[in-house]
Amino acid sequence: MSDTRSAHLVGKISAVLRALSATHATGTTTTDLAREAGLPRPTAHRLLSSLADEGFVDRDRQTGSWFLGPELYLLGQTAGTRYDVTHHARESVHRLAAKTGESAFFSALRGEETVCLLREDGDFPIRSFVLYEGARFPLGVVSAGLVLLAFQSDTDVDDYLGRTDLTTRWGPSHSPEEVRARIDRTRRHGYAVNPGLVVEGSWGMAAAVFDHNGKPAWALTLTGVESRFRPDRQPELGALLLHEAHALTRRLTTQR
């Protein structure tokens, strides 16, 4: 097999696994996964069958739904010794949920997406379920994706927005002009606000956590219903997010 064909195959496998990881605990059908991965259904089915033979995916015999497999868990356990930072972030997520009553999250930047790694719900009974562990969103979408894009260099922001169409899936509120306006506000305040742009009435706020090189690499997020994120409360929530984000940045850059 040529290098080009090999790279193409690896890309297809990666798309299948990423799409499968976004299905959370519910699993997904071959048809739905093929659509999310941007592959023909027969291709997706062949890849899934081959991955299942190696233990990288698993299929529920009763429902036919596909899930990530046990081999990935074992590989993840090994990789976690080098890459896992959730044990550092768990206390911050807990404090944010306890202090605010909202749902708190920790997400990582992976390529040009954010991946949610941790969730803890506060005691307020009405919650938003836009974010969940394993959820992926492109940069510029949801508050975590906005804050991680906002604190990249102007050159990187211009490059990303110049070649990325967010409007087809996420609507006109995610045009380059709209995203740039939110980036400007995020840079001024230090935290990002998503005013129900993904799901109406479901708001979010996020602050960036930085790596050893001073680059945005993770995000802490609070989400909830619109009435809990009114303008008079946003500075309070933003201050809590920034405090935890700064503390977590120090912890990650000095202990890892």
From TrEMBL:
Gene Ontology molecular function terms on file: DNA binding; DNA-binding transcription factor activity
DNA damage listed as a keyword: no
Any one biological process term the GO annotation gives: negative regulation of DNA-templated transcription
Keyword terms of this UniProt record: DNA-binding, Transcription, Transcription regulation
Top-level taxon of the source organism: Bacteria
Limits of the HTH iclR-type domain: 7-70
Pfam families, per database record: HTH_IclR, IclR_C
Gene3D superfamilies: 3.30.450.40, Winged helix-like DNA-binding domain superfamily/Winged helix DNA-binding domain (1.10.10.10)
Limits of the IclR-ED domain: 71-254
Protein name: IclR family transcriptional regulator
